[in-house]
Amino acid sequence: TQQLSLFSSNETPDDYSTGELKLILVNAYLGEALQKLHAPDDRVPVLEETQERYRQFLTSCFMLGIFKPSSEAEKRLLSRSPNSADQTSSGGPSANERNPLAAGQSRMEKIARFKQMRAMQQAIAELEAKLSSRGGDGEDDMDEAEREHALKLIGFKIYQVVDDMNAVSDEIVMAKQMEEMKRRTSGAMSDDARAIERPREEDWRLDSGSYGQIDPRTGQPTRPIFDNNGRPTQPFVITNDRQRIKEGVFRPGWALPTMTVDEYLQQEKERGNIISGGGKEPEMKPEIDDNDHDALDAETMKQREWDDFKDANPRGSGNRGGNRG
Predict the structure, then answer these.
(1) If exposure means fewest CB atoms within 10 Å of the residue's CB, which of 59, 167, 218, 253 is most exposed?
(2) From CA 182, how far away is CA 159, in angstroms rounded?
């Protein structure tokens, strides 16, 4: 719309149709879409393009008399370039920091703007409900409602864009500071990265094991087997570890036994860890013959006496503690 010069300062909103007035919102919506774009690695150009789209929207509204700046800060939004956002950050303190009264006035302006935006949102919602119903009202009433809705929407977007431009300006300052910090950090880490990369390159060489080794015969560090051109500098032997790797792969996941139990006991006995010998083994109690009635009666009487003794002396009766029943 800016390149086609669709809007002129010599005309008013009454000179344009409702459809033409809606074209003013193109730059506002483009700026809103760019502001939501996720570009962490190249954020500053996106924010600068967002600010330019917002500025073009406010300029078109200013030419038609829809946007009337009420403060010096809003007037600066019409002429501010995307690269001028860092003037207050790189220089001295901002205007609000230099003048505390200006900070209080800015706060009151934001509160008044918020109340106006809320009232306009309610009016826009009512007009949208009226346009969606399209009941028994005449065609002229609907055209008037649609035009009022377009003007209300433009006015609401003006308030929203003013707030967004201030937020974008602050974000540009922070994004530039982050890029500067990244450049400083990358410059400081470049030397360390080169120092780390060299050992990694040596690890991938076939003769990486010869680096840093000491020859026991001469006591001097060993030379690399290959030079930088790949030519061998000394004789070497190529070994094959395929069988060793194969044995390490095709094997159970637990440790296998290396000797039998008898071999282990014999080994422990030789070490003196097994005690043999000892006292006399207890004699086995002879079994009573079933035909020996006297022996059977004597055994029966012995069991009865033992039962009587246990009845007269219950378990724990001799204790002096709290086990007494």
Answers:
(1) 253
(2) 35
SS3 278: coil
47: which 2 tokens?
């924010």
C-alpha triplet 12, 13, 14: angle, nearest 5°? 90
- For CA atoms 53, 58, 62, 66, give the dihedral sign: positive
Start-to-end Cα distance in the chain: 106
SS3 276: coil
Number of H helices, E strands in the chain: 11, 0
Q: Where are the alpha helices (DSSP H) in the chain?
A: 18-22, 25-35, 43-63, 72-79, 87-90, 95-98, 100-133, 139-203, 242-249, 261-271, 293-312
Task: Record the pTM.
Answer: 0.47
Q: Where are the alpha helices (DSSP H) in 36-99?
A: 43-63, 72-79, 87-90, 95-98
What is the token pair recorded at 150? Answer: 């377009």
Task: Provide the 8-state DSSP code for 1.
Answer: -
Phi, psi of 201 (to 5 degrees): -65, -35
pLDDT in tens, the chain (325 residues): 556 666 666 677 777 788 888 888 888 888 888 888 887 778 888 888 888 888 888 888 888 878 777 767 777 777 755 444 444 444 444 545 445 556 666 777 778 878 888 888 888 888 888 778 765 556 667 778 888 888 888 888 888 888 888 888 888 888 888 888 888 877 666 655 555 555 555 555 555 555 556 666 666 666 677 777 778 777 766 666 777 777 777 777 788 888 999 999 999 989 888 877 766 766 777 788 888 888 889 999 999 999 999 998 888 777 766 555 5
Report d(CA 55, CA 23) in Å as an integer: 15
Residue linked to tokens 């080794």: 213
What is the distance between the alpha carbons of residues 217 and 208, in angstroms, rounded to a whole number? 20
On whether the CB atoms of residues 50 and 35 are closer than 8 A, the answer is yes
Q: Report the C-alpha gap between 222 and 209 in whole angstroms.
A: 10
Tokens of residue 324, six digits? 């007494």
Give the number of other Cβ atoms within 10 Å of residue 213's Cβ: 10
